[in-house]
Amino acid sequence: MKLYFSPGACSLSPHIVLHELGLPFDGVKVDLKSKQTSDGRDFRTINPKGYVPTLELDDGTILTEGPAIVQYLADRKPELNLAPANGTLARYQLQEWLNFISTELHKQFSPLFNPASSAELVAAQKARLADRFALIAQTLDKHDYLLPSGFSVADAYLYTVMSWAGYVGVDLSPWPALARYQARMEARPGVAATLAAEREAKKA
Fold first, then answer.
1. Fewer CB within a 10 Å sphere, N or C end of the chain?
2. Closest to 173 measured CA to CA, from 135, 146, 133
3. Domains of the chain
4. Cβ atoms within 10 Å of 127's Cβ, excluding its own
């Protein structure tokens, strides 16, 4: 498999999942501005959407969209329980979290990265994100990860999105549960290995 990624982008989520699962893969860095891959290809010929993450399977099939990719990966090693079994209520609860993170957190950050956003829009987005993080903190006050069963692919996605907060001035300090969660995540060998790999990729 090949994971097309850009350091620090939302592709960090499947990158973490691949390391957590111990699946063999090749990482291909993408310059999101030029749309060029590190091996010299036009990324849009691989994924016409032009953004990461993108997973290329061994048979050449292309899979896009982070929540779909992380579930596909988790199902390659179901014994590691990074996603509950398909058809179970727990699997739908995982998908509930993935959808919430995607729509209520991930996309809410987009205006904060846009220098053209007005001060009013930025303030409104930060307030909206604060409401969402307060809800998540309630869950993380009760157990270590989003699902009571433990670490899942939803945590890889949440951690990824939370990592952007400091860059855009979203203050997470009102919720100590979130700080404890970030520390817990960074203590995981799979997360630590991914962060190290992305730091190296950034230098290249």
1. C
2. 133
3. 2-79+190-203 (3.40.30.10), 83-188 (1.20.1050.10)
4. 9
